[in-house]
Design a protein that fits this description.
The protein has 272 residues and is an alpha/beta fold. The chain is built from 11 helices and 11 strands. It has 2 domains: 84 residues, Ribosomal protein L30/S12 (60s Ribosomal Protein L30, Chain: A); 164 residues, SPOUT methyltransferase, trefoil knot domain (Alpha/beta knot), CATH 3.40.1280.
């Protein structure tokens, strides 16, 4: 099936936030990312591939999506470059509907570990945090309105497809506060060690393993966590490090804390 110029233009618009918002769709590219979409049964509306550029693994993905009755469109290398957001396209891309992102519809009472991303502006950091949260069995991710768009192509790529396996909701600060109260969750903010406030309780990561819901908040490396989130924080937590640097990268800090929580809960004695 050939692709029209109008459709090609529409797909190219998905490289922009304006285009994604207008269509309520996003594009995901590359073999590894689309293999993850298959693994989590997160099916696209259509799959596009370039015969001249696709690898053997890519052809297997085409075959599997075809068996799931997904529309398959073959395009030229030039057409693939038009819709691709990468300098070196892998010859395979898919168009997805943007999934539900309302907190009230995604949250389940069984969720105990929630990652909150506040003022994360770097797509690479956000994508890495998605991937890390899934790796360490966090149940869902919340993103505030001043965080980079979740389905920005760079976020999708940095997540290595983990974005298809982790429920993600947008939340205003008011919605976050209401959620915190209704779920009886504790909000723990990751704060740079030079910013620990005197009027906040500092607790180590080992204290984050209670059975009640926990919201771990991570902010941007440059600006930290917003005053709105800090105002509803129950505990501030910091990662001790050398004074040779001012702060850790946001994704690195989030990964360290999530790993410690994961390890502690895995080894938690049965009587606790």
């Amino acid at each position: 099936m050939a692709i029209s110029k109008a459709e090609l233009k529409k797909l190219g618009s998905l490289k922009t936030k304006k285009g994604r918002n207008a269509e309520n769709r996003f594009m995901a590219e590359g073999v590894r990312v689309l293999e993850e979409a298959l693994k989590f049964d997160f099916l696209p509306l259509k799959l596009l591939f370039s015969q001249a550029d696709i690898s053997e693994r890519g052809r297997e993905i085409v075959k599997q999506f075809k068996s799931k009755k997904i529309e398959i469109i073959e395009v030229s290398s030039k057409e693939m470059d038009t819709i691709s957001d990468t300098e070196t396209a892998q010859g395979i891309a898919a168009v997805f509907n943007v999934p539900e992102s309302k907190l009230s519809k995604l949250y389940k009472s069984s969720y105990r570990r929630v990652l909150l991303c506040d003022r994360i502006n770097d797509p690479g950091n956000l994508g890495t945090l998605v991937r890390t949260a899934l790796a360490f069995e966090f149940d869902m991710m919340l993103v505030t309105n001043n965080t980079v768009e979740m389905f920005n192509p760079k976020v999708v790529r940095a997540s290595a497809g983990a974005i298809f396996g982790l429920p993600t909701a947008h939340a205003s600060y008011q919605e976050l506060e209401q959620f915190k109260m209704s779920s009886n969750a504790s909000l723990v903010a990751a704060v740079a060690q030079h910013n620990i406030r005197n009027n906040m309780n500092e607790k180590s990561e080992w204290d984050l393993t209670r059975k009640s819901p926990q919201i771990l908040a991570v902010g941007s490396e440059a600006d930290g966590i917003s005053k709105e989130v800090l105002s509803m924080t129950d505990y501030a937590i910091t990662i001790r490090h050398s004074s040779k640097i001012e702060s850790l990268n946001a994704a690195v800090a989030g990964a360290i804390l999530m790993h410690n929580i994961y390890e502690k809960q895995r080894t938690k004695p049965a009587h606790e």
